[in-house]
């Protein structure tokens, strides 16, 4: 029971993280996310970094099922 | 005390798990409809001269397994990172919600804004149902709907927070949600509709595919919200003291 009583009480809000601390990590995470999402969702669609269709074909089923536009 | 760096790393880790869960769901519920749609596409394609086969860059076996897994996991990592940043901003700033409840709420908002709202206007389409010539226009409209969805859920939080002192939490949330629904509904009514699904394409197959697609999104967001919330709450527990340890016999 000791562990259960040591839990934060329900409705106990954590102290907000200052925006100054979040900003660099938000930028870092957002840049990585945009690059990853581009290659899964849009590469070799209307724009292409790499020539050919291999990236598009490799993630083809995921692109359809995740709701991106494929062709 | 929560820390943005820890939350971001946790979000990307949880994203890997969410991607694997999405893959399992998509493999069992989505691959059947995709296979049937490709069979439809091939049956209606102009036949190649006898003895020739279309050159496949990536085989169906790779697309439906390792390709789908890669796409789901990469998507999960990206969403997990963005999700974690949103939780880092929202934690302690939405009423008196705990970190775990905040993670759950952000996941629901993410599912609605990123998946459900765009889906209502431009739902996912199986292979064989799109005209490649309109891909540019469709891509632009889809991302516009995505921006509208994300803006709508952020709008709900911002407006509800500002109305809360006057109306109370419940009424402020309802008023803000109704406002966002009106905005989204107007956008859906005004934006051009696109329906390129061929007449002879099975409506049941289309329904199964779209349901599988929405289900894949639901599994992704549910895993993100629930696992991230669990891990965050666990990390906030004070380290067990010696007295709390079971006494060794």
Question: Brief overview, please?
Answer:
The complex is a heterodimer of chains A (71) and B (249). Chain A has 71 residues and is mostly helical.
How can the largest sheet of chain A be summarized?
A: none
Q: Assembly state here?
A: heterodimer
Mean pLDDT of chain A: 86
- Shape call of chain B: flat
Structural class of the secondary elements of chain A?
mainly alpha
The CA-CA distance between the termini of chain B, in Å, is: 36 Å
Which helices and strands appear, and what pairs or packs with what?
The complex is a heterodimer of chains A (71) and B (249).
Chain A lengths: L1 H4 L13 H23 L12 H5 L1 H6 L6
Chain B lengths: L3 H26 L1 H14 L15 H31 L8 H23 L13 H33 L1 H22 L12 H34 L13
Walk me through this protein's architecture.
The complex is a heterodimer of chains A (71) and B (249). By secondary structure, chain A is mainly alpha-helical. Chain A has a domain at 37-71. The termini of chain A are far apart. Chain A is elongated. Helix content of chain A is 54%, strand content 0%. With 249 residues, chain B is mainly alpha-helical. Chain B has one domain (4-41, 62-236). Helices cover 73% and strands 0% of the residues of chain B. Chain B has helices at 4-29, 31-44, 60-90, 99-121, 135-167, 169-190, 203-236. Chain B is flat. The relative contact order of chain B is 0.18. The mean pLDDT of chain B is 92. The chains are: A mainly alpha (71), B mainly alpha (249). Chain B: The chain crosses the membrane at residues 7-29, 66-89, 101-120, 140-160, 172-191, 211-231.
